[in-house]
TrEMBL record:
Species of origin: Povalibacter uvarum
The protein's name in its UniProt record: Putative NAD-dependent epimerase/dehydratase family protein
Highest taxon listed in the record's lineage: Bacteria
Entry-linked PANTHER family: DUF1611 DOMAIN-CONTAINING PROTEIN (PTHR40690:SF1), GLL3100 PROTEIN (PTHR40690)
Residue ranges of every copy of the D-glutamate N-acetyltransferase-like N-terminal domain listed in the record: 59-138
Record-linked SUPFAM superfamilies: P-loop containing nucleoside triphosphate hydrolases
Domain D-glutamate N-acetyltransferase-like C-terminal residues, every copy: 144-337
Matches recorded under InterPro entries: DgcN-like (IPR011669), DgcN-like_C (IPR035086), DgcN-like_N (IPR035402), P-loop_NTPase (IPR027417)
Length: 352
């Protein structure tokens, strides 16, 4: 049978058949395999292994199994770990997807192209009584945003570009705040975050008029000392994805933003004729637009994705950028004292 899974802010509504075999297709750009990398890093115990349909495909470093081998090792579904441009299911993937259904695995996807709209997959799923689970399906009847100020505290991870660490930053901050005894929830806004958290709002599948309203649903009224740590999407500077970023910013009404950036990236992912903006420009534009729905919004600091740097290079760059910007700067995945200072700044009351 086929299933299109509704995605709402209700954390109890989603259930995925775990553990997963991660499917990487024939993607060679690591940025387009961020779903697989995210699940490896944040839900490793639910990942049996990986499968690709090309020897040149990127790897996330998990054991490589065929669908039958993964099924024998306990996998219950094959999850498409790709987030390519346009969210397309490619014809070259179909033999592998059909094979997974034939050996008894369900399919889980966060692509824009629906599994349930692909005739070959629908026919195979019905023949073998397997499920096609499409995550990128927003709930019905999303309201237009009210703009009403909600109770509780909110932090939004924003970025200079897409696919550079907003999800990891939000997950790391939410985890660290809980370890400090702060009431905090991670609010997922993309397919990978939803798969990790088990709930969320697929913001880039929401009709534009309802983007801000969807963000309001995702982060409702809460206790005064409760923090919602909201996963950002895209970038206000991105020529393709800025609309999602703006709707999320307005609807989230963040009290705090953390700007995410990858050192060394000079041009927008997938749009090499557009330069990546400076961190200062990203701070300025997000604050100016964010003040429309929360005049008190502030930037607590900067999250750098230093995964391509050595520990010493990362340490030096973090210190230099913090001194240059006059703000806490950290790589949340590396942690340490810089990250603790960033957390302190997130929790600090705005100076009067």
């Amino acid at each position: 049978m086929t299933l299109t899974a509704p995605v709402t802010a209700d954390a109890a509504i989603l259930h995925f058949p775990q553990p997963y075999l991660l499917f990487l297709g024939d993607v060679t750009e690591p940025g387009y395999a961020k779903t697989a990398f995210g699940l490896r890093d944040w839900a490793r115990d639910q990942c049996v292994g990986e499968l690709s349909c090309s020897p040149d495909a990127v790897s996330v470093g998990l054991p490589r199994f065929t669908p039958a081998e993964a099924k024998a090792r306990g996998a219950r579904s094959m999850l498409i770990g790709v987030a390519n441009q346009g969210g397309r299911i490619l014809d070259s993937w179909l033999p592998s997807l059909i094979e997974a259904l034939e050996v008894g695995l369900d399919l889980v996807s966060g692509m824009h192209t629906k599994l349930s709209s692909t005739p070959a997959l629908v026919a195979t799923a019905e023949r073998y009584n397997r499920r096609l689970i499409d995550i990128r399906t927003p709930p019905r009847d999303i309201p237009i945003a009210s703009g009403r100020k909600r109770t509780g505290k909110r932090l939004l991870a924003v970025g200079t570009d897409c696919a550079l660490g907003k999800k990891y930053t939000a997950l790391a901050i939410a985890k660290a705040l809980r370890q400090r005894g702060v009431a905090a929830d991670f609010r997922a806004t993309g397919q990978t975050g939803i798969m990790i958290a088990g709930s969320g709002m697929p913001m880039d599948a929401v009709i534009s008029d309802f983007e801000a309203g969807a963000a309001e649903l995702l982060s409702p009224d809460a206790a005064p000392d409760h923090w919602d740590i909201i996963e950002g999407q895209g970038s206000l500077f991105h020529p393709a994805y800025a609309a999602v970023s703006l709707g999320l910013l307005h609807g989230s009404q963040p009290d705090v933003i953390v700007v995410c950036h990858e050192p060394g990236r000079t041009h927008m992912l997938g749009h090499s004729h557009y330069e990546v903006p400076s961190i200062e420009d990203a701070i300025d534009l997000n604050l100016r637009l964010g003040r429309r729905t929360n005049p008190a919004v502030r930037c607590a600091g900067v999250s750098l994705n230093t995964s391509k740097l050595s520990p010493l290079e990362a340490e030096r760059l973090i210190a230099a950028e913090s001194a240059r910007l006059g703000l806490p700067v950290a790589d949340p995945i590396r942690g340490g004292e810089p990250f603790e200072r960033l957390l302190d700044a997130c929790l600090a009351e705005k100076s009067r």
